[in-house]
């Protein structure tokens, strides 16, 4: 996987949409879901809508599952936490909204080139340039943040596969520590790359 993202070339409707439109749509959809999805039927409807968006991007069920499967351990932890302090239905809604939000970000990264993403963010932030804000650096930071979502999902998947290959039981020490170390190594890689390009 490319360290800057997981773009999948294609000619679907989502591939042809401008990055700016996809960014705004993603933000609006996540906001609307956060404000309106409170019950399991509503969560089911939101899930169907996100599945339709995946289909518009030409992303099949197997690819979607491969992208989101590494989230299961984190979602399981959040689910248990929510059940303890609320109830199981609320826990399902919270975990479902989190998964759907990550899924939408994944759709954007799968259908948008990094360069196009940067250009769109720079254009959107251009008015701030008059105030002395380095919009190019802000755009780069935002793009890397969005790209890091599927990247960390992939890291969790690789750690889980390594655990299975060694016959180890799942647990916080087995899963969390390697993921944190991998995240730190990835951050160092980003920093080195940016420094080499004079963006430190």
Automatic annotation (TrEMBL):
Matching Pfam families: CbiQ (PF02361)
Membrane-traversing stretches: 23-56, 68-85, 91-110
> How does the record say this protein sits in the membrane?
Multi-pass membrane protein
A cellular component term, taken from the record's GO annotations: plasma membrane
Question: Where is the protein localized?
Answer: Membrane
CDD domains, per database record: EcfT
Provide the protein name. Energy-coupling factor transporter transmembrane protein BioN
Source organism: Gordonia paraffinivorans
- High-level lineage: Bacteria, Bacillati, Actinomycetota, Actinomycetes, Mycobacteriales
């Amino acid at each position: 996987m490319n360290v800057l993202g997981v773009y999948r070339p294609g000619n679907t409707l989502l591939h042809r949409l401008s990055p700016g439109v996809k960014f705004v749509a993603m933000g609006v959809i996540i906001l609307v879901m956060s404000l309106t999805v409170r019950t399991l039927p509503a969560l089911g409807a939101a899930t169907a809508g996100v599945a339709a968006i995946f289909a518009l991007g030409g992303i099949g069920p197997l690819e979607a599952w491969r992208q989101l499967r590494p989230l299961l351990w984190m979602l399981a932890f959040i689910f248990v936490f929510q059940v303890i302090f609320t109830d199981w239905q609320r826990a399902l809604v919270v975990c479902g909204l989190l998964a759907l939000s990550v899924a939408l970000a994944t759709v954007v990264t799968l259908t948008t080139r990094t360069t196009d993403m940067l250009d769109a963010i720079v254009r959107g932030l251009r008015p701030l340039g008059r105030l002395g804000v380095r919009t190019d650096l802000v755009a780069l930071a935002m793009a890397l943040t969005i790209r890091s979502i599927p990247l960390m999902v992939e890291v969790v998947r690789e750690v889980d596969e390594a655990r299975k290959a060694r016959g180890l039981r799942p647990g916080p020490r087995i899963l969390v520590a390697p993921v944190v170390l991998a995240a730190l190594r990835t951050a160092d890689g980003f920093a080195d790359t940016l420094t080499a390009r004079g963006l430190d």
